[in-house]
């Protein structure tokens, strides 16, 4: 199978809640010029028997992606390099509508991404298209290089490098690929594999009901929808409870584990909050209500 082309680089934003990996946003990353992957492997670990290698183990330990595209637009730079954008409408002499500048400073936070391309092949006189998706990468800031124009144009393309790593799923995948007979199918696969264009996940809602518990000074809670397998509950009660506001937010100080069935010590009139969290205490859903506790007597 001979490689004859490269096209359609795309990206999406990577996130995870525990071992649940998700992607959102993203889109086209320009037009591809060249790409390469240099892999790192763990040191060879061989078992010898009968004076020779009987078993050998080697696994992916990381890698580096190098890719050149026709252009690196403001929009793509902002997304993949995590920089802020500022309007230039107040700058004297600037007449371009919607002109902006990218600001590289202490506020820059380079995100983890999913990234993919399509490689064109010819096999037995048939054109095939292989879509390759890298599960989790992070780009480095781009080196700025340029050559002055001479008698003939020297075409120059921006080059980016990224670290390739395993994702946070249970099996820690790092790459997936599929081959098709049309480019359109390969594009569809990449968009599906990296969930390109999807909305950023938002914090789900819990309906929390508080009724008098069995013992004095306790409340019995009913929470819907039911707990998702693998997750658990955290609760907090006080005169006022502040719930997490975003999906994946870490739930920590002031919150305690709850088994989902036991009565809870609480005071009538106070608030009680319930958060469904992942194994790494990241918020999935949240809700609260006013406490009704069993009164003494």
Describe this entry's structure for a reader.
With 297 residues, the protein is mainly beta. The chain is 6% helix and 48% strand. It is built from 2 helices and 20 strands. It has helices at 74-81, 183-193; strands at residues 2-17, 20-28, 32-41, 45-49, 52-57, 60-69, 84-87, 100-103, 113-123, 126-139, 159-165, 175-180, 204-205, 207-212, 218-224, 232-238, 256-258, 264-265, 271-277, 283-290. Strands 1, 2, 3, 6, 9, 10, 11 and 12 form an 8-stranded antiparallel β-sheet that branches. A 5-stranded mixed β-sheet has the order 13-20-19-16-17, with no helix packed on it. A 3-stranded antiparallel β-sheet has the order 14-15-18, with no helix packed on it. A hairpin with a 2-residue loop joins β4 (45-49) and β5 (52-57). The chain is elongated and about 95 Å long. The N and C termini lie far apart (83 Å). The relative contact order is 0.17. The mean pLDDT is 90.
Question: What's the topology here?
Answer:
Elements: E1 2-17, E2 20-28, E3 32-41, E4 45-49, E5 52-57, E6 60-69, H1 74-81, E7 84-87, E8 100-103, E9 113-123, E10 126-139, E11 159-165, E12 175-180, H2 183-193, E13 204-205, E14 207-212, E15 218-224, E16 232-238, E17 256-258, E18 264-265, E19 271-277, E20 283-290
Parallel strand pairs: 13-20
Antiparallel strand pairs: 1-2, 1-9, 3-6, 4-5, 6-11, 7-8, 9-10, 10-11, 10-12, 14-15, 15-18, 16-17, 16-19, 19-20
Low-confidence stretches: none
Number of helices: 2
Average predicted confidence as pLDDT: 90
Helix content: under 10%
Percent in strands: over 45%
Main beta sheet: 8 strands, antiparallel
- Rg for CA atoms: 26 Å
Helix and strand composition category: mainly beta
Strand elements, count:
20
* Helix-strand topology string: EEEEEEHEEEEEEHEEEEEEEE
Termini separation (Å)?
83 Å
The rough form would be described as elongated
């Amino acid at each position: 199978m001979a490689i004859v082309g490269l096209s359609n680089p795309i990206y999406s934003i990577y996130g995870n809640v525990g071992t649940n990996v998700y992607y959102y946003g993203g889109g086209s990353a320009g037009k591809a010029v060249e790409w390469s992957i240099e892999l790192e492997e763990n040191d060879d670990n061989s078992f010898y028997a009968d004076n020779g290698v009987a078993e050998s183990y080697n696994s992916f330990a990381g890698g580096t992606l190098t890719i050149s595209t026709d252009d690196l637009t403001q929009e793509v730079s902002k997304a993949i390099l995590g920089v802020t954008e500022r309007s230039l409408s107040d700058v004297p002499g600037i007449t371009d509508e919607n002109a902006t500048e990218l600001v590289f400073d202490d506020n820059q936070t380079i995100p983890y991404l999913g990234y993919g391309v399509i490689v064109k092949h010819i096999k037995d006189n048939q054109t095939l298209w292989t879509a390759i998706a890298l599960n989790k990468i992070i780009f480095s800031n781009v080196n700025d290089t340029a050559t002055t124009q001479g008698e003939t144009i020297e075409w120059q393309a921006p080059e980016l490098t990224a670290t390739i790593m395993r994702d946070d799923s249970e099996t820690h995948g790092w790459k997936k690929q599929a081959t098709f007979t049309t480019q359109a199918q390969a594009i569809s696969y990449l968009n599906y594999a990296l969930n390109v264009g999807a909305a950023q996940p938002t914090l789900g809602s819990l309906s929390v009901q508080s009724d008098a518990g069995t013992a004095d000074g306790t409340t019995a809670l009913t929470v819907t929808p039911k707990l998702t397998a693998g997750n658990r509950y955290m609760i907090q009660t006080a005169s006022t409870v502040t719930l997490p506001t975003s999906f994946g937010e870490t739930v920590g100080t002031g919150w305690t584990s709850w088994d989902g069935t036991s009565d809870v010590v609480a005071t009538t009139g106070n608030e009680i909050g319930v958060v469904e969290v992942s194994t790494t205490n990241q918020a999935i859903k949240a809700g609260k209500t006013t406490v009704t506790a069993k009164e003494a007597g």
